[in-house]
Recover the amino acids of this structure.
């Protein structure tokens, strides 16, 4: 599926402006330690990709400190990196993890949702939809190696993956806690969760905004494995090898068959979903709630 128009335009702008970035230039290879051209990694400002062509696997590390919030820029750069891998026949699988200690992703960037105009909210929600669709429908094997807290939008990304492996740290909670912030998870993400843990468990989790620590996350089925922190990467790669042992065409067709109805539901109602989101997020009561939450976060940091 092609990038949405707004995301595509932003992506092209970022590519044109790449030479002006501080730090690694978008898409510019960085030599990996001890590696030649076959093991070179590439990076943009917010995503680091460490490819292993011999294994057919790449590790995508989210590196948008402090908490890998899903800003427009982050989502655009992530999709650029993902698309680059999907277009390279050397790669069949991707491990998604974090380069920010203790945080996989804290979710939506609330500064994108406060004090903006409807056009901005529209562009932002299109990008969120596109991020989910591109991950959910990817032909590649996607394994989430969750090495930090994973609420809301972080959980959104993890739920799209074929396998979720969570590091065994009581602080590393995962779930959709939108109601705690006074907002509501979209219907398509609800469907994704129901498909994963069942209707009744999803009803409880969504209404209460539950965040599950590792043992509970495994019990309810929102993650597939919980492993010691020092074994997370090796376990993710081991899981990847098992999935890649299946012929791609059979696995891809089966994945598409299992996920088509859920994805089609969003695709069919995409414009209505955007309008509903813009109308909801623009309410004075919602804006006040989000602003109060942001102020609370600033006070904690202070």
């Amino acid at each position: 599926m092609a990038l949405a128009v707004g995301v595509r335009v932003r992506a092209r702008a970022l590519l044109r402006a790449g030479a002006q970035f501080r730090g690694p230039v978008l898409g510019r290879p960085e030599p990996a330690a001890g590696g030649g051209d076959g093991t070179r990694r590439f990076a943009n400002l917010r995503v680091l990709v460490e490819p292993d062509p011999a294994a057919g696997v790449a590790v995508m590390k989210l590196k948008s400190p402090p908490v890998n919030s899903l800003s427009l820029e982050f989502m655009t750069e992530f999709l650029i990196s993902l698309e680059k891998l999907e277009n390279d026949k050397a790669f069949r699988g991707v491990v998604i993890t974090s380069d920010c200690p203790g945080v996989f992703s804290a979710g939506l960037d609330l500064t994108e949702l406060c004090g903006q105009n409807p056009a901005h909210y529209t562009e932002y929600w299109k990008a969120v939809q596109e991020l989910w669709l591109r991950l959910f429908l990817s032909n590649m094997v996607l394994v989430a190696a969750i090495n930090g807290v994973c609420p809301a939008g972080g959980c959104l990304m993890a739920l799209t993956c074929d396998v979720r492996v969570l590091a065994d740290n009581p602080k590393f909670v995962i779930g959709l806690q939108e109601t705690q912030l006074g907002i509501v998870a979209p219907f398509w993400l609800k469907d994704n969760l129901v498909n994963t843990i069942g209707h009744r468990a999803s009803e409880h989790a969504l209404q209460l905004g539950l965040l599950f620590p590792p043992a509970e996350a495994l019990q309810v089925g929102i993650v597939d494995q919980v492993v010691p922190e020092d074994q997370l990467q090796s376990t993710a790669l081991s899981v990847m090898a098992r999935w890649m042992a299946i012929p791609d065409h059979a696995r891809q067709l089966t994945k598409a068959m299992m996920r088509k109805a859920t994805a089609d539901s969003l695709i069919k109602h995409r414009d209505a979903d955007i309008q509903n989101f813009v109308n909801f997020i623009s309410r004075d009561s919602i804006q006040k709630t989000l602003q109060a939450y942001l102020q609370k976060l600033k006070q904690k940091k202070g």
Summary: Residues 152 and 176 are 4 Å apart (CA to CA). Confidence is low (pLDDT under 50) at residues 1-39.
